[in-house]
Amino acid sequence: MNTWQFASLHSPSAALIYIGILSLGLILGLLAVWKTVRGMEKVLKMPDGPEFLDALQHFLSDKHNTRSAEMSRHELGFLSVRELAEEVMSGGFDQYFFNSAGNYADDALWCLHLIGAETTASILERAMVQFPAGKVPDLRHDRQEIMATLPEAVQEVWEALDQEFYASSDDLDTLLTAFVRANEREFR
Description:
Order of helices and strands: HHHHHHHH
Low-confidence stretches: 26-37
Shape: flat
Helix content: over 70%
Largest sheet: none
Distance between the termini: 41 Å
Radius of gyration: 22 Å
Mean pLDDT: 87
Number of helices: 8
């Protein structure tokens, strides 16, 4: 018997306490699920536009930080594309791959193809193949170690791809909005 147990589970009072604790855990778990469902419903009812995309990204970022294993592939793809765009627009591919957003380069690429952002997908693919064997390591630490050894020519390629990314004709916001609206059941 653990030191915190003050009575045998065979006694009625201990059994009631145990049942109460289990019930409380179940209620709190159901409340968390209900809150998540209600939160996503609220976000999905928003009108299309930048506020909608920002709210969805914020909601999914929170979900990723607390319950990433529960995310659908569509949710992770959406979040990965949004983070790709933010990182590249603020610091280029060097920053994207250096930071944790680069952990999800494969997910971003999958989603870009799925939403029809072929120009952006091509740019990302060309940035990704600069890693040895064309494979971007999933772990930030591993990527950073490799990036420290890459030749200067890779930086030049990434800088040229940064410019292509900035000038891309793909309207990621419109494509992502259409993707979410067509797949709302995948966003939960």
